[in-house]
Amino acid sequence: MSYGTTGNGRFNGNYSKGIYTFNEIHSYGDIIGATMSRGRNERLKWETTYKFNTGLDFKLFDRVDVGLEYYKDITKDLVYNTPVSLTSGQRNIYSNVGKLQNTGFEAVVKSTNIRTGAFSWDTQFNLSLNRNKVLELNEGFSRTTTSSIMTEGHDSRAIYLVRWAGVDPSTGAPMWYDVNGNVTKTFDMANRVIIGDPNPDFYGGMTNTISYSNFNLSFLILYTKGGQSLNQLRIRAEHDGRNILSDNMATSLLDHWRYPGDLSVNPILSTASNNSNRVSTRYLQDESNIQFKNISLEYSFPQEQVKRIFLKGASIYFQADNLGVWTPYRRTKKLNKGNGDFENIKLNNSGNSNEGVPNQTSFALGVNLTF
User: Fold this and answer.
1) What would the DSSP string read from start to end of 280-328?
2) 3-class DSSP state for residue 87?
3) How far is CA 256 from the centre of its chain?
4) How does DSSP classify residue 193?
5) Is 221 a member of any domain?
6) What is the pLDDT of residues 287-306, one digit of tens each?
7) Is 28 contained in some domain?
8) Nearest CA among 277, 280, 265, 187 for reference residue 241
9) d(CA 212, CA 2)
10) What distances in angstroms separate CA 186 from CA 144, 268, 269, one per listed residue?
């Protein structure tokens, strides 16, 4: 068990003094000028985190080792890039805005499943979770972005969106819910509500190691349950035809409204803006996934053999990384084309919907020599 405080100086000390930028863009009369690129806040100070931690380690049946840990961190003088009045010449300045709490639990289990003769099987499993809550904000003032809100009593990155209500089957028009839960065909940012947060319910991994004689096989699986995020690729690619002349469209838009009575996922396609692709829960996705992260097979040559060639050890191995990802998203859907005719269409899924370069599947074959 432990308790203590730590300071957090993760921000540049110059943030409190303000930063000026010199470049030709801000020149005047052929003389290079300077503009304040970061506003001044001389009252800015370090965060202080009060940390409590306790844990328990024990062994079961002489085969299972268990480690449990609980922590509770309370951060005062939370630093946040706060929006300010544009009359100040700045959009945001760093300031101390309130108090934040993080509580969490971690568990590690190591077990010897089988150990007999030349054969053994060991497993290591870990689970972690964290809960985040804003305890206080200066003057109770909430901070919002397009899709998130920092407000007392909720996660500091609580998801704050208009709720998507689907497509009107009679007209193909997009629909949303207002703040009272009534269906409306008018998109209004004033109808945003707190939906959830990006933190997973829990996450962790499991490693299995199986050995027999001189062979060793191990594999790693990672998992995440819960947590939500906006799918930025879908926001850009599922624009319902509005940007058809300049941008590609997702294949999932093949499932769009065509005729009165259609029960479709996407509204009618149109080059005219009807706000259908405004940021809403339409593009919110569950972050749950299971990843087959790594598998490795190694053979170690017997000592009597490697000594003959003046080595202390030698082994050959095969390794593969990022072999697969499971998510709760469908990859295909049957599209009703009418007259009893159906077509299988591909849908964007977690494997191709995340921004950035996806993880590469790689294979390696190698030799380890010890001299």
Assistant:
1) BGGGEEE--EEEEEEEEEEEEPPHHHHGGGT-SEEEEEEEEEEEEEE-S
2) helix
3) 29
4) E
5) yes
6) 899 999 999 999 999 888 88
7) no
8) 277
9) 42
10) 21, 16, 17
Number of structural domains found in the chain: 1
CA–CA separation, 162 and 125 (whole Å): 39
Q: Which helix (H) or strand (E) holds 350?
A: helix 350-353
Whole-angstrom CA distances from 329 to 55, 72, 134, 182, 185 are 37, 35, 32, 28, 27
Long-range contacts of 16-25 (CB under 8 A, 24+ apart): 16/40, 16/41, 16/42, 16/43, 16/44, 16/94, 17/42
Domain that holds residue 173: 2-8+45-370
Residue of 15, 122, 23 whose CA lies nearest to 65: 122
- Is 20 a member of any domain? no
Residue 232 in domain: yes
- 213-233, pLDDT tens digit by residue? 999 999 999 999 999 998 888
**CB contact at 8 A, 263 and 335:** no
Separation of alpha carbons 2 and 6, rounded Å: 13
User: Would you call 180 helix, strand, or coil by DSSP?
Assistant: coil
Tokens at 264, concatenated: 């479709």
